[in-house]
């Protein structure tokens, strides 16, 4: 049953936004004044986090948006996603739609153990290849 808004689905449809930066993997990052409608219905977005400094625009938490309850699960009826946001000079964004299967912590742990233990130098090398993008303390108006 997908009629309820609080249902937990083992398979979810998620929207993700990030900066269009190809030099390294990007975390979720929402554009300013984002508005998402799925099949004509307004999508609930994550609330804003409290600003870390005075005068800095508040940000939403970096996480996907679960749109499963708004999606039509039909092979004959199309789904429509309408997205808009305020353009920012020097920044462009990418959006993706993911079909995600939830895994229990037990299954995830089994899968990690099956991969074996990696040398700590592997993780250190990964963390050095992509340094986080520093945000300028700009106020958007």
In short:
Keywords: Ligase, Transferase, Ubl conjugation pathway. The protein is α+β, with helices and mostly antiparallel strands and 141 residues long.
What does this structure look like?
- Helix content is 15%, strand content 21%.
- It contains two helices and six strands.
- With 141 residues, it is of the alpha+beta class.
- The protein has a three-stranded antiparallel beta sheet, with no helix packed on it.
- Residues 1-103 form the PINIT domain.
- Belongs to the PIAS family.
How do the strands and helices of this protein lay out in sequence?
Elements: E1 11-19, E2 35-38, E3 41-42, E4 65-66, E5 81-84, E6 93-101, H1 105-115, H2 120-129
Antiparallel strand pairs: 1-4, 1-6, 2-3, 2-5
Beta percentage is 15-25%
The number of helical elements comes to 2
Low-pLDDT windows of residues: 1-5, 132-141
- The rounded distance between the terminal residues' Cα atoms is 43 Å
Element-level helix/strand string = EEEEEEHH
| Overall outline | globular
How is the largest sheet built, in terms of strand order? Answer: 4-1-6
Work out the radius of gyration. 18 Å
Protein structure class: alpha+beta
Helix fraction bin: 10-25%
Largest sheet, in brief, is: 3 strands, antiparallel
- Arithmetic mean of pLDDT: 80
Number of strands: 6
Family: Belongs to the PIAS family.
InterPro entries: PINIT, PINIT_sf
GO molecular function: ligase activity
Pfam families: PINIT
